[in-house]
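Sharing in case it's useful to others searching the archive later.

Someone asked me privately for the predicted structure of Precorrin-3B C(17)-methyltransferase, so I'm posting the question and my answer publicly. Question first, with the sequence:
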Amino acid sequence: MLLFQDFQPIAAIAPTPLAVKSLRALAEGGEVTLWVPADLATDELPCEVYQTTLRELVNTLWQTHRALVFGLATGAVVRLIGPLLQDKMTDPAVLVVDGAGKGVISLCGGHQGGADWLARAIALRLNATPILTGGANALALPGIDVLGEPFGWRKGSGDWTGVSGAIARQQPVQVIQEAGSTLWQDHLPPDHPFVFGWDDPTAAQPNLPKPAARVWISPIQRRFADGAEVPSDCPKVQWHPRVLWVGMGCERGTPRGVIEAAVADTLRRHHLAEGAIAGLASLDLKADEAGLLEFCGDRHLPLLTFSAETLRAVPVPTPSAVVESEVGTPSVAEAAAILAASRTCQRDRQPQTFAPLRVSKQIFRLPDHPGAVTIAVAQAEQEYTGRIGRLWLVGTGPGRLEQITPAAQAAIASADVVIGYSLYMNLVAALLHPGQIVEALPITQERQRAERAIALAQWGLTVAVISSGDCGIYGMAGLVLEQLQAQGWDGQTPAVQVFPGISALQAAASRVGAPLMHDFCAISLSDLLTPWPVIERRLAAAAAADFVTALYNPKSQTRTEQIAIAQRIFLDHRAVDTPVALVRAAYRNEEQITLTTLGQLLDCPIDMLTTVVIGNQSTRFHEGWMITPRGYLGFEKGT
Ligand code: SAH
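And my answer, the predicted structure tokens:
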């Protein structure tokens, strides 16, 4: 399971038998290394043994691990990690699980270390309660210091503690967002403290409350005054969405230092933040230019290159006849910046409109250094996330939370975005957390749901698409994969993972006994996506072959005839007293179970929440239970 992949490596430390008991489930998943003293190691326990003192072990693991999970009293953990704590940007996430395995405390590294996230995921795995003490969490708000992470924004300078404090005190916090996704704004609780935009300076009375803190979301580099010279009116922070594409041309062999200086100087003069750089763009002849590659490699920036032919089609303010005669396009820096910034997340599409230049072509040299650079900067409408998106296709079972696999629960709990039909969203509400983007769409808009999920994943987000039951049985998995296929998906980007769920036929069967025991099949009576003659043929074949048959989508308010036709087809092959179970809303509060026969099933309540299970020739009722004999048993005995 790749759920904890963002935290690898993770160590769990269990110095006592009780701790081993509460933490071993983590080690069994294979993603967490369990450390125990020699006297607690056994053959069947997947663990590593430490021979040193506990303090020495922790000192070592601290340097190499992204997260540490302690099965130890919080007081002891605090004493162990106290001398090691340095900076919340770099310290590992620290979690404590109590001896009874009931609570998972996010002790430190809550936001940036991801400890809150991990505490939720581990609590799900251990069937425990996550204990998160960060202020934003209690207010159902995303942490301000992790706000932009899903979108790949870079954190800029500012007084992060001061702004977090104002949020925790529920004081008004002004947000000025000049770039980047505003999706996060759509999913705030109604009483959030954020005030968006500026006050109208022409209004007689100020409309907005005086802010206690300010958040800038912008490619602009703001220099916050601090200290005595210019007293700052309130704490401020800045996030930088990566919207700037730096177009660059350079002489062959221009050293990295000159490129660095060109970028730094150009951005500084235009008050732009280096954190807002999405990537570099150039002519394809420069794809092997050492200085460019080193610059991009160091900073984990993509280098996009375009052919001269593509570049020459881009209208630019500063074309050059000299450049055109040398490389076949009148512009490299400007045209490449504009093209890179104009790409949508669907990489191959030609841009419809061209992105604006923020900085037109500049020529840059460093005294006493070889080489020269031309540089221009364009601003994209949508930020580059720098992340490979993931699509998790998740089955949420029939209804109740406990019927969802732990893996599926963890997937829902940890996705950036959860997309699904509104009814199912309510059923998984307990798994959702502040800061997640939750998009509930009506049941009719399945294709839109799939398209939306794909678009967000292509952009770099981790998107969980949820379906009731199993997502691969009349669910969203097929729709999403079909659409990916139609778009020429390479099978890897976005990365897809399917999480199975308990399908309605299993849920229904479990409520009435063991009706599916022998060979069975599922047939949907919905002719929205399948022509009715095909459905009739399958019904006839299943009936003739004596399959136990689960009918999905048996009847809606407008589709009432199909179930009657199905009954007639089955009566051609099976007795009128063949047992039939009608299970409505299995594992939900409004669950309703009716045991009837093939002859009488139309007299019973059937709707779109019902699964109809028709027995085979050997299926029997016994004291309110529906049983299909195992069938092979007699045969095995006889052999
Ligand atoms: N992917 C789902 C099926 C979706 S089709 C799954 O694997 O279960 C929708 C149909 O599923 C409904 O019309 C009904 O026939 C059945 N269904 C879904 N949830 C159900 C439940 N809780 N109880 C009974 N039937 C259910």
